């Protein structure tokens, strides 16, 4: 069985950096869920994981994810990553700006039987909106 850190590295290279998105079918648990996305209410498993990557690629076709750091404790892996790309698709109602962006995030990932089962992500969405020139109105 492959260790969780290696599984995540393979997933980021294959699915997010587009070497082989079908690898999600092998490494993502059929009940996979991400806890911070509305899409997770509709989809689960490899289909959810691939849909998230596809949606992100539609906005940032040249996206590149770099894993900066990982910490593994049993079946849990904390991951710090950076995504770079160019804003070429609508995002939060903002039309494409062609601005380069950099997004940083921290994830917690839980594995079961060597497969990714759950993800919690906290990313710098405000910084991303500022980079694409979004105007944020106070409530």
What does this structure look like?
The chain is an alpha+beta fold and about 140 residues long. The chain has one domain: Nuclear Transport Factor 2, Chain: A (Roll). About 30% of the residues lie in helices and about 35% in strands. A 5-stranded mixed sheet has the order 1-5-4-3-2. A hairpin with a 2-residue loop joins strand 2 (about 65-75) and strand 3. The chain is globular and about 45 Å long.
What does this entry show, briefly?
The chain has 139 residues and is an alpha+beta fold.
Overall pLDDT metric: 92
- What's the helix count? 4
Quaternary organisation: single chain
Main sheet?
5 strands, mixed
Order of helices and strands: HHEHEEEEH
Number of strands: 5
Structural class: alpha+beta
What is the C-level CATH assignment?
A: Alpha Beta
Query: Helix content range of the residues, please?
Result: 25-40%
List low-pLDDT spans. none
The CATH architecture term is Roll
- Structural shape: globular
Terminal residue distance: 49 Å
Outline the fold blueprint:
Layout: H1 4-16, H2 24-27, E1 28-34, H3 45-59, E2 64-73, E3 76-86, E4 100-112, E5 115-123, H4 125-131
Parallel strand pairs: 1-5
Antiparallel strand pairs: 2-3, 3-4, 4-5
Keywords:
alpha+beta, Nuclear Transport Factor 2, Chain: A, five-stranded mixed sheet, 4 helices, 36% strand, globular
């Amino acid at each position: 069985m492959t260790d969780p850190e290696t599984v995540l590295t393979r997933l980021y290279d294959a699915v997010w950096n587009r070497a082989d998105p079908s690898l999600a079918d092998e490494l993502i648990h059929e009940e996979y869920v991400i806890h911070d996305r509305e899409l997770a209410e509709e989809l689960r498993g490899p289909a959810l994981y691939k849909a998230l990557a596809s949606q992100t690629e539609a906005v940032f076709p040249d996206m590149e994810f770099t894993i900066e750091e990982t910490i593994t404790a049993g079946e849990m892996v904390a991951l710090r990553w950076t995504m770079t790309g160019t804003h070429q698709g609508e995002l939060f109602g903002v039309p494409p700006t062609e601005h380069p962006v950099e997004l940083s995030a921290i994830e917690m990932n839980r594995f079961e039987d060597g497969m990714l089962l759950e993800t919690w992500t906290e990313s710098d969405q405000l910084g991303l909106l500022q980079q694409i020139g979004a105007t944020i109105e106070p409530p």
